[in-house]
Task: inverse folding
């Protein structure tokens, strides 16, 4: 992951002399370092992004995110469950880190990037660790004869992928301070081995979404992609 | 955005290092339901002049500004030269049409702002002014003189309903209540031609942080 | 021997005087345009916050005016005056403004305080107008100075503007505008009704200024000149020049073997023009008769209305008609009627037309006429500037400046014609309703439409060649001769040789950089 990040930074720096002759950036500055406020606020995490203005209305973004989330699942109510079905009790801990690479197309011809409204696309890849407690039992759970067994589940280095597509608006104040607001449609999915499919089924359809889940499948015992709307609010600084 | 250049400038045969800016203007208006009111303040104009000079230096252009903020009893050149030339340029721009150059193989460049470059219209025949101003090239040390300014409009937000959808409402609040116009016309008094003309509309308020990058971009485009 | 020697010396001295007098006469008819000189008065350099505001007594005593209203009005005055005075359109340190101030001092000799409160300047606007700005500045346009017939008429205009200042009409108009905005916002009346109200208020103010200005001017000047001035305003779309000009005198040259063709073209054009004018006259007579019948019917209808007992607005006029309800100024007839009533009480005062000096007036008016032609050409009204400069050249054939304006105007007309924009700068019957102007328009139209505009270029080049030879010291004529020759497809080499001869004659001339650039670009 670190190697990828380093490659991205070097690539941007190498591109600078060739591409900046055609675009002026913001007062001659072409790089912005940003952090997303949604991560520390809603998940104990961190997000850092580097945006490089490569063309007059196009910029490339590279974002690294790291988050520790507690995913609370509701307990299932009483009902007739048969031996063999599993259910989760309590909280899942999700620890993940992703890299998202993307581009932005700025909409206003009058003012060159990085100011103004934009449309963007990001593709992300990363790894996530899931750990939580599951319960299983024999017999009918509703009957007093049933026996419940609890066990810990830990799925490590689960590959996660996502893409975002949306639009936003970036403002610059005091010549250096950047505020960036965006709203996007997200699809994210886990590449899980069959061993953990049923355990992670209830998590997969909301992974990576911070605002609204658009399509959700309640129940089911297989991992499905998550579809939703994300909101991001970033603060940054214009550098070189 | 409209960006026009004459042939010589587009072919980089004309290189600009110093420009005399003829009294840059900053006008601010508020459009109400039934009236147009003018906002009065000296500071906008002074700040604009100051920033144009600073930004010019950043882009490698020496900008000399003659404006009316600090006129003294001996500044007759302002009335005899500067204002006369400014009025002549304005008259030429308003009365004369231009002939666009028929460039081969530059279909998109002439018609669309692309992701990499703005739309640039190249003139074959530019508006011209009188040759009686050509002495000013020697007097002021450069044949390039510009008329530039900012017009700031504030008008009622017609997308109030978008507040029902908060993110859109926030966007419309940022975008639709202001319009700022920037214009820049550069003339070469030796050839008597208008060599560059630019007009931009931004739907932002006329804060310095919004205007400065436009001026920076304008000066950079002028020299490309 | 000694006596012969003395006689010879005396004769030589006499001849020298004669030569000097002739030379003086020739140079007397030259004209140098006004340039601004230092020191610049404070009115042109002050910042808005420092600007002097002379509040008329009426406003300072008005207890109904709130502080916020006063501040808002003064702020508006400061900034609008700032842009007007620094626009480069107002003369200062010039003879016209000095002369006008002498008239003001004479009119207000019994009120030195008021005199000190006023600052009066001539402006470069080529229109027949004057204005009072509301803070003590009065502006008189060169179009008006060029048009007046004597000092008394100018004095009436100045007195009219002083009356506007004393009555504080600027502030009244400001207040009225605000009231109208409030009424519009509260939808009490429709927009058109409110506009008519505003115009009515404006006309009342004009009538009041007429009356008070007349009473101010009448003791010092012949009162009937006020009426003459109003009649002149009605004809402000005409000028003082004779309505006949033989354009063939200018556009003929014996240098060119093709001249006879041009003069034939001109003669034919003149005949065609006259034929068209005769036709138009006939149609105009027909229309006049039709309109007379219409008016008769209208009067009948109005009489019926009066009998019906409807109210008349006696403030507007005797018969209450509001033909000018959308105008800021009343009909001239109403204005004349009002002053005629006042004149009856005054009678003939027996004072002179000129309190300052008739020679000075003639000099100032001549300056205004030349500046007027210059301003028309600087504002892009090349048709009008050509017309006026040819009239001036006809009056003063040795006047280099008039020839220069005409030559420049011809060059610009050719250039605009080449670009297809000549309609922007030469319109038919625009601001000058005179037959000789129409004739010029007709001639130029014929030329520009012949051989794709090449005839216009040829004729203009001949004019410039003729007059640059007649006035060898004129930079403008020579350079524009070069520029107009360059407009011809086959004229590049010839124009380059003209630029070379310009540089030889005027190496430090105002067009020298241009000429050098043209030569270096061509190489």
Result:
């Amino acid at each position: 992951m670190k190697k990828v990040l380093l490659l991205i930074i070097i690539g941007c720096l190498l591109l600078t002399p060739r591409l900046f002759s055609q675009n002026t950036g913001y007062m001659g500055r072409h790089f912005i370092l940003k952090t997303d406020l949604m991560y520390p606020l809603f998940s104990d995490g961190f997000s850092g992004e580097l945006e490089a203005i490569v063309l007059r209305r196009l910029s490339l973004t590279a974002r690294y995110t790291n988050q520790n989330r507690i995913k609370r699942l509701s307990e299932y109510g009483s009902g007739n469950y048969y031996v063999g079905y599993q259910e989760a009790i309590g909280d899942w801990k999700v620890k993940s880190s992703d890299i998202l690479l993307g581009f932005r197309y700025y909409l206003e011809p009058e003012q060159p990037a990085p100011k103004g409204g934009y449309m963007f696309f990001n593709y992300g890849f990363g790894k996530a660790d899931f750990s939580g407690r599951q319960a299983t039992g024999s017999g009918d759970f509703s009957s007093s004869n049933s026996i419940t067994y609890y066990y810990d589940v830990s799925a490590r280095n689960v590959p996660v992928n996502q893409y975002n597509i949306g639009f936003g608006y970036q403002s610059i104040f005091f010549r250096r301070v950047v505020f960036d607001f965006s709203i996007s449609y997200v699809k994210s999915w886990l590449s899980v081995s069959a061993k953990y499919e049923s355990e992670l089924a209830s998590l997969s359809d909301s992974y990576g979404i911070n605002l609204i889940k658009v399509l959700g499948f309640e129940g089911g015992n297989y991992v499905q992609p998550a579809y939703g709307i994300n909101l991001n609010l970033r603060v940054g600084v214009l550098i070189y | 955005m409209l960006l026009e250049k004459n042939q010589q400038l587009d072919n980089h045969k004309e290189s600009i290092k110093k420009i005399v800016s003829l009294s840059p203007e900053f006008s601010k208006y508020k459009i109400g339901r039934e009236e147009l009111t003018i906002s009065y303040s000296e500071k906008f104009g002074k700040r604009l002049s100051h920033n144009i000079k600073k930004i010019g230096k950043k882009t490698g252009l020496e900008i000399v500004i003659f404006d009316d903020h600090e006129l003294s009893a001996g500044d007759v050149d302002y009335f005899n030269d500067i204002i006369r030339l400014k009025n002549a340029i304005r008259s030429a721009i308003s009365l004369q049409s231009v002939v666009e150059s028929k460039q081969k193989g530059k279909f998109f460049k002439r018609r669309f702002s692309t992701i990499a470059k703005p739309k640039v219209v190249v003139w074959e025949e530019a508006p011209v002014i009188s040759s009686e101003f050509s002495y000013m090239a020697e007097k002021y040390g450069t044949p390039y003189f510009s008329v530039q300014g900012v017009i700031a409009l504030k008008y009622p937000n017609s997308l109030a309903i978008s507040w029902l959808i908060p993110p859109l409402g926030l966007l419309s609040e940022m975008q639709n209540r202001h319009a700022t116009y920037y214009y820049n016309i550069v003339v070469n008094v030796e050839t008597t031609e208008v060599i560059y003309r630019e007009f931009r509309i931004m739907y932002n308020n006329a804060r310095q942080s919004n205007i400065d990058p436009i001026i920076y971009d304008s000066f950079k485009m002028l020299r490309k | 021997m000694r006596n012969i020697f003395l006689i010879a010396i005396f004769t030589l001295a006499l001849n020298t005087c004669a030569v000097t007098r002739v030379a003086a006469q020739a140079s007397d008819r030259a004209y140098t345009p006004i340039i601004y000189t230092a020191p610049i008065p404070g009115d042109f350099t002050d910042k808005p916050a420092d600007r002097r505001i002379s509040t008329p007594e009426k406003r300072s005593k008005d207890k109904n005016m709130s502080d916020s209203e006063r501040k808002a009005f003064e702020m508006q005055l400061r900034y609008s005056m700032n842009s007007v005075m620094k626009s480069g359109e107002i003369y200062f340190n010039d003879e016209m403004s000095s002369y006008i101030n002498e008239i003001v001092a004479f009119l207000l000799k019994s009120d030195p305080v008021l005199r000190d409160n006023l600052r009066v300047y001539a402006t470069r606007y080529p229109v027949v107008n004057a204005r009072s700005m509301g803070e003590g500045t009065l502006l008189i346009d060169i179009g008006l100075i060029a048009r007046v017939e004597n000092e008394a008429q100018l004095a009436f205009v100045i007195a009219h503007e002083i009356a506007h200042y004393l009555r504080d009409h600027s502030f009244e108009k400001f207040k009225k505008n605000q009231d109208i905005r409030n009424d519009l916002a509260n939808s009490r009346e429709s927009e058109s009704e409110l506009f008519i109200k505003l115009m009515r208020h404006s006309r009342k103010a004009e009538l009041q200024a007429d009356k008070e200005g007349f009473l101010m001017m009448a003791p010092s000047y012949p009162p009937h000149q006020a009426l003459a001035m109003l009649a002149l305003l009605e004809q402000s779309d005409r000028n003082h020049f004779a309505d006949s000009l033989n354009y063939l005198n200018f556009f003929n040259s014996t240098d060119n073997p093709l001249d006879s063709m041009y003069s034939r073209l001109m003669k034919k054009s003149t005949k065609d023009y006259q034929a068209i004018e005769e036709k138009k006259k006939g149609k105009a007579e027909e229309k006049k008769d039709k309109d007379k019948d219409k008016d008769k019917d209208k009067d009948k209808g109005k009489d019926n209305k009066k009998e019906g007992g409807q109210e008349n607005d006696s403030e507007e006029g005797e018969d209450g008609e509001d033909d000018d309800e959308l105008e800021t100024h009343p009909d001239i007839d109403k204005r004349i009627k009002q002053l005629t009533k006042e004149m009856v009480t005054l009678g003939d005062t027996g004072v002179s037309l000129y309190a300052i000096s008739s020679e000075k007036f003639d000099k100032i008016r001549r300056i205004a006429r030349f500046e007027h032609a210059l301003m028309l050409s600087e504002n892009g009204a090349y048709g009008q500037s050509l017309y006026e400069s040819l009239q001036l050249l006809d009056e003063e054939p040795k006047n280099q400046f008039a020839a220069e304006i005409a030559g420049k105007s011809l060059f610009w007309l050719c250039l605009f014609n080449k670009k297809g924009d000549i309609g922007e700068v030469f319109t038919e019957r625009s601001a000058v309703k005179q037959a000789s102007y129409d004739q010029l328009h007709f001639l130029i139209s014929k030329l520009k439409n012949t051989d794709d505009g090449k005839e216009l270029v040829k004729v203009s080049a001949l004019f410039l060649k003729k007059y640059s030879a007649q006035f060898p010291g004129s930079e403008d004529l020579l350079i524009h001769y070069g520029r107009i020759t360059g407009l011809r497809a086959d004229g590049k080499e010839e124009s380059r040789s003209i630029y070379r001869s310009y540089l030889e004659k005027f190496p430090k001339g105002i067009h020298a950089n241009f000429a050098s650039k043209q030569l270096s670009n061509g190489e």
In short: Residues 2-239 of chain A form a domain with the Porin fold (CATH 2.40.160).
